[in-house]
Design a protein that fits this description.
Elements: E1 6-10, H1 14-26, E2 30-34, H2 37-46, E3 51-55, H3 63-73, E4 77-83, H4 87-95, E5 100-104, H5 108-131, E6 137-140, E7 143-146, E8 151-153, E9 159-160, H6 164-175, H7 183-190, H8 201-213, E10 223-226, E11 230-233, E12 238-239
Parallel strand pairs: 1-2, 1-3, 3-4, 4-5
Antiparallel strand pairs: 6-7, 6-12, 7-8, 8-9, 10-11
Helix pairs in contact: 4-8, 6-8
C-alpha cells in the first residue's frame, strides 16, 4: 500500500501506541511511536514527520509541554488527545498551536478521519506554495500576508509565525474583508467540520490570531466581534499585485 503520510504517536501507554500504529499502518501510513518526550525528540530528529498524535496526560513531561516544544521547533501538524471532560487542557493545547483535538474515548474511524483532514490541509498548503496559487500576497493595516509562502510580516518588518489553523483563519478573513462571517461559515472556510459551531475551540483560534496581529487583543481593531452575528476583518485588504 502506498505511504500516505508519516505519523508519530506519542503516548505513555504502550498498548495504545501499538494499537494505533497497527490500525493506521493498515490504512497506508508509516507510523512511529514514542512513550515520552525524549523518545519523541529522537524520532523527530531522525525522521521527517508529517503529523504528531500526542496524548496530553502523560507522566513527566506532559503533552502540553511537548506541544509547546513541537510548535517552537517545527511546523509539524499536531492532533492532541484529551479526556472527555478536559476542556481546559484542550483549549490550552489549541492555544499552544495544536491543529486539532480528539477526546477519549474515541473510535479508530474518528481518529482516522481527523488525521486525513489535518494532512489534507497541510498538503493543500504545500501544493499552493509549489504552484504559486492562493492569491499571492495581500496587505492590510500595514501587515503583509504572503499566502503562497505562508509568511506574515508585521508593519515593523518582522515575521510572525502562524500555525496551520491560524494561517487558514487569516486566509478566510483576508479573502472576505469587511464581511461578517458567522461561526458556521468560518468552519466551512476552515474545512474543519469536526468542531461544532458552538465549540469554544473557534474562540481559542480567534484569540490566538488576535494576539499576533492586534495592538491590544482585548480590544481588537482588526478582527472585530459582531455581537450575535459573527466576526469581521474590519479593514481594507489590498492585492500585492
Amino acid at each position: 500500500m502506498e505511504n500516505t503520510g508519516t505519523l508519530l504517536v506519542v503516548d505513555d501507554e504502550e498498548e495504545i501506541c501499538n494499537f494505533l500504529k497497527d490500525y493506521l499502518e493498515q490504512h497506508g501510513y508509516e507510523v512511529f511511536t514514542a512513550n515520552d518526550g525524549d523518545a519523541m525528540r529522537a524520532v523527530m530528529n531522525d525522521n521527517s514527520i508529517d503529523l504528531v498524535i500526542l496524548d496530553l496526560l502523560m507522566p513527566g513531561e506532559d503533552g502540553l509541554t511537548l506541544t509547546r516544544y513541537l510548535r517552537e521547533k517545527s511546523k509539524v501538524a499536531i492532533i492532541i488527545l484529551t479526556g472527555k471532560d478536559e476542556e481546559v487542557d484542550r483549549i490550552v493545547g489549541l492555544e499552544m498551536g495544536a491543529d486539532d483535538y480528539i477526546a477519549k474515548p474515541f473510535s479508530s474511524r474518528e481518529l482516522l478521519a481527523r488525521v486525513k483532514t489535518v494532512l489534507r490541509r497541510v498538503n493543500e498548503r504545500t501544493e499552493q506554495i509549489t504552484a504559486g496559487a492562493n492569491g499571492g500576497s495581500v496587505q492590510f493595516a500595514g501587515w503583509s500576508f504572503d499566502k503562497v509562502g505562508r509568511r506574515l510580516m508585521s508593519p515593523a518588518g518582522s515575521e510572525v509565525a502562524l500555525t496551520t489553523m491560524e494561517f487558514n483563519l487569516l486566509t478566510a478573513f483576508t479573502d472576505n474583508p469587511n464581511r461578517v462571517l458567522d461561526r458556521d461559515r468560518l468552519l466551512d472556510l476552515l474545512q474543519n467540520r469536526s468542531w461544532e459551531p458552538y465549540d469554544r475551540s473557534i474562540d481559542v483560534l480567534l484569540g490566538r490570531l488576535r494576539s499576533k496581529i492586534e495592538n491590544n487583543p482585548k480590544r481588537p481593531e482588526l478582527i472585530k466581534t459582531v455581537r450575535g452575528t459573527g466576526y469581521v476583518l474590519a479593514t481594507t485588504v489590498d492585492s500585492g499585485q
